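hey m, so remember when u said the tokens were messed up on ur end? i reran from scratch. heres the input so u can diff it against urs
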Amino acid sequence: MNKQKPAQSVNPTAYPFAAIVDQNEMKLALIVNVVNPRVGGVLIRGEKGTAKSTAVRALAQLLPAQPTVADCPYNCDPGRPCPACQARLEAGETLPVEQRRVRVVELPVGATEDRLLGTLDLEAALTEGEARFSPGILAAANRQILYVDEVNLLDDHLVDVLLDAAAMGVNSVERESVSLSHPASFTLVGTMNPEEGELRPQLTDRFGLCVQVRGLADPALRQEVIVRQLAWEADSAAFGAAWADEGRRISAAVARARELLPSVQAAPGVLERVVAVSLGLGTDGHRGDLTLLKGALTLAAWEGRNEATTGDVDRAALLALPHRLRRRPLAEMEFDIAEKIKRI
């Protein structure tokens, strides 16, 4: 097995992930998703100014570099080439490969369906008479982080399409005379301020994890936020260097967890605990059960263990189930389910 290399360099102007004060639940949910994108993404709900966007952009700086076919519009893995690159290989072509950092690809609120999915290249059709596909945002996001700020303001239909692609890892396009599928496996992160409107429950449920963030109530922590922000603004390079060792530690831990994850097994009683917690909390459907198990396995990998325990299930439930509880408006997500889990 080829070991994934930790990120080799960090943008000195980006605020360091390790320097974000507190907000540990949000940081853990993001890490779980980059270790295991199959968890299904994370929805970060919270008031403005709580480091939601900062955390997403900072995390990308620490992710392991990955081999990529240099001229592929889908950023495909040379070990698992997309159909177009596979055809090139079968034709005897050697694919150019390079190591690339993971990027944050942003989906703007005003994006159209064609911009998201891709569409017919009209210029090629008119000038060359050839039906050619023009890749969209989902193509650029393959093997990257797809970030949707203010996801609650995005058209519901686009959110549906986005979540379908995230679940399947494939984008299928039917446009005029163009019919194709391409890989679209990405880490989905959506952020929203509930004061600006809620996301429909049916769509919220499609996010694997959901966390609620708020401004820090501890005076000492709030002071530390100010101190660190001013230090970063004064000299971002020096501030980044001061947190570089901790950043490298997180980067190496992510790489190790990704390598370990396929071998992590569920300990006896884990499946029973998954079902008991889901039923005990009154969650709808089965999506939460699957996410809960994936989350527990990923937490074990993150902590360097080969076996997930019932304790991992209970911890994962705090991230995977609150937004799936029946008859609980998302405006009431602040209630603590930890005590309920202990009684199940």
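this time it looks ok to me. DSSP finds 15 helices and 13 strands in the chain. if urs says something different then somethings off w ur setup not the seq
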